[in-house]
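Record passed on here:
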Amino acid sequence: MSKLKSLSVFFLSLILPALCMAQTATSAELFKQGTQSYLAKDYAKARESFAQALDQDPNNAVVLTNLALAEFQLGKKPLAVGLLRKALTSDPELSTAEAGLKFVLSQLGVREVPRQIETYESVRTKLVQPVPLYAYLILSALTFFAAGWTLISYGGRRRKAMQEETSAPGFPIVSALLTLSFVIFTGLLALKVYDSTILRGTIIEEKVSLQTAPGDNQVAILELFGGMEVVAHQTQGDWVQITYPGSLTGWVKKASVLMTR
């Protein structure tokens, strides 16, 4: 029994860390191979290497970005869009992924379908999605303490004026602005947290039919095109229910959607 325990301790303390280090080295080597293949314009081999590296580190934004560029070179533009969105979900500040997404979308020419842009989606695109969660958390904390400090100072000056029977200090404009900023940043922080609970995906086929129900030969209600971002709800077999924001809800094949969050 003691020997078995000693072997277990040896395995946990020495073997497992060694395996983790080997896996990390393998992932780095695969990434290096993919980069070399990409520079040599062997995009198929680059895609294979980046995909294998991604299997070991599924949320690595840099690997996702490089895989997206390889897919783009191989003509898989909608898939490249989905991979870049997934990269930005992992790291919203990765400038190469952001620049790559803008470029691929400009080359893809995503077609619009009739829809009504919701207020939340507009705010999300401009203020929620591009900013990391920690940034709003820091801003909320800073404005909270700053507003509290200025309000306490204002209260002290007002009390002193009353005791000395002098004119009261003017309206605390700075405190009001800081309080308003705190409310705004806290609201955006709450929206950021809420948005992280929404499962989104990207259409990665050139064109798919949004159906009224899961299954083949169902009634098509809308055509969706590659690169469009959708909200996923539930799955049923090989099908997933999605909503194109501001438009209709229906079913498409799971294989036609890459979940980016």
Notes: Residues 154 and 172 are 7 Å apart (CA to CA). Confidence is low (pLDDT under 50) at residues 1-23. Residues 2-39 form the longest helix (38 residues). The helical segments are 2-39, 43-56, 61-73, 77-90, 95-108, 119-128, 133-164, 173-195.
